[in-house]
Design goal:
The complex is a heterodimer of chains A (123) and B (283). By secondary structure, chain A is of the alpha+beta class. Chain A is 28% helix and 22% strand. Chain A contains four helices and five strands; from the N terminus they run E-H-E-H-H-H-E-E-E. In chain A, strands 1, 2, 3, 4 and 5 form a five-stranded antiparallel beta sheet that branches. The two termini of chain A are 27 Å apart. With 283 residues, chain B is an alpha/beta fold. Chain B is built from ten helices and seven strands. Chain B has a seven-stranded mixed beta sheet with strand order 3-2-1-4-5-7-6, with helices on both faces. The longest helix of chain B has 18 residues. Classes of the chains: A alpha+beta (123), B alpha/beta (283). Chains A and B meet through strand 1, helix 2 and strand 5 of A and strand 2, helix 6 and strand 3 of B. Chain B: Keywords: Methyltransferase, Transferase. Chain B: This is S-adenosyl-L-methionine-dependent methyltransferase.
């Protein structure tokens, strides 16, 4: 149940991996769509926290191309709806996330990503 | 039976059977629910604003369910896979992560509007291996610093936990302060043996003024709700070695014999150096 909203907030936390550690790239993903209640206020609140480029990329990796690659200046209802769908309704069930810098692989199984680190990776 | 955190690391203690047992227990459910509501109250989130929260040590989603009900969007982390499995079965709404909070978070700065954690921090106070990154201060430091950066400014994090001593509280608060948090300990029902609950209420950012004052703990007795876990109380009646203290010792026997004599009972044996002495094992 990794939704893209959490993926967009997640960076690699391996020891010493501090630059270029975001966004984690998806690998061999299976997705599932689950409807969620549309809450325009929440989505609006979230926008300043998002990295738009990373989000559009991640959406493309899971096969959704409804978002424009650049952050639009104006937010209309249609776009909020699309954003809501991408952020909260797409769930990644299986696959992995790979850090672009240190190549650490966070496997996702049954919807739960395994974020545990080995002893030498703990900062 | 000693405290759960002294028996085994959380991911082992909360195995398949214990995870199911814990979640099904209605008493646990009630306690968790009460504490989650109280933690939310202490979080003091702006009303009518949908917030994105982090549930640290979400377990089987007992607290998450309440966050769902209250309309918050949340993500949860826990180290026990069995608990997370139960959470999946219960179909909670939040995103779940298998993560050791002592290893720190990877969330980007300013990700969350607040964090709650119910009955978790005490698990960070035991070292599982001798590796330097396994020492409680190191794990607490890593936990609090990464959490501090993951929270928005201003915001709050509320932890309910079960400290065994004032030293533990001291250790936790000092590390949290070093990590940049303000705030402190809130104790609910401090005078009640049963209902007493300790909350660590941390603030990110000054904000200043009335908003970031440490809230008052609740006073008075509250016996309406199950606010009390029996297994933690059982401990206090036993000493550390795990053996029960013998009640019928020499003093007790002497007292009883004196009492019988006063009442005029016949045939009370006289006191001697052998009174109350342990017999030899016969074979």
């Amino acid at each position: 149940m990794v939704r893209l909203v959490t993926h967009n907030l997640l960076a690699c936390h391996v020891k010493g991996c501090t630059t270029n550690n975001f966004p984690l790239a998806f690998q061999d993903v299976q997705i599932e769509l689950q409807e969620a209640e549309f809450n325009p206020e929440f989505v609006k609140n979230l926008i300043p926290r998002l990295e738009w480029g990373a989000l559009a990329d991640a959406a493309k990796q899971v096969g959704d191309t409804s978002l424009p690659p650049e952050e639009p200046d104006m937010m209309d209802d249609d776009l909020l709806q699309k954003l809501h769908h991408v952020l909260l309704e797409i769930h990644v069930i299986e696959g992995a996330m790979v850090c672009p810098n240190c190549k650490h692989v966070y496997p996702i199984s049954n919807g739960i990503p395994n974020m545990l680190l080995a002893e030498h990776e703990i900062g | 039976m000693s405290r759960p955190e002294l028996q085994a690391p959380p991911e082992i203690y909360y195995g398949d059977t214990e995870a199911k047992k814990y979640t099904k227990n209605t008493r646990n459910q009630q306690i968790q629910a009460d504490m989650t509501y109280r933690a939310l109250e202490l979080l003091n989130l702006p009303p009518d604003e949908p917030c994105f929260l982090l549930d640290i040590g979400c377990g089987s989603g007992l607290s998450g369910e309440i966050l769902d009900e209250e309309g918050y969007i949340w993500a949860g982390v826990d180290i026990a896979p069995s608990m997370l499995e139960v959470a999946l079965e219960r179909e909670v709404e939040g995103d779940l992560f298998l993560q050791d909070i002592g290893q720190g978070f990877g969330f980007r700065p300013g990700s969350f509007d607040g964090a709650i954690s119910i009955s978790v921090l005490q698990w960070l106070l035991n070292a599982e291996t001798s590796h330097p990154t396994s020492s409680p201060p190191h794990r607490l430091t890593r936990f609090f610093t990464t959490l501090h950066s993951a929270l928005r400014n201003p915001s709050r994090a509320v932890f309910q936990f079960y400290p065994t001593s004032d030293d533990q509280i001291q250790l936790i608060t000092s590390i949290a302060q070093k990590a940049g948090f303000g705030g402190g300990i809130v104790v609910d029902y401090p005078n009640s043996k049963k209902a007493k609950k300790v909350f660590l209420c941390l603030f990110v950012g000054g904000g200043g003024g009335a908003q970031q004052q440490i809230p008052q703990g609740l006073e008075g007795e509250d016996d309406e709700h199950a606010r009390f876990e029996r297994r933690r109380e059982k401990l206090k009646t036993k000493d550390r070695s795990g053996k029960r203290k013998n009640i019928k010792d020499r003093d007790w026997i002497l007292k009883k014999k004196e009492l019988y004599r006063q009442r005029g009972k016949e045939g009370v044996p006289r006191d001697s150096k052998f009174t109350g002495r342990k017999r030899k094992a016969t074979f």
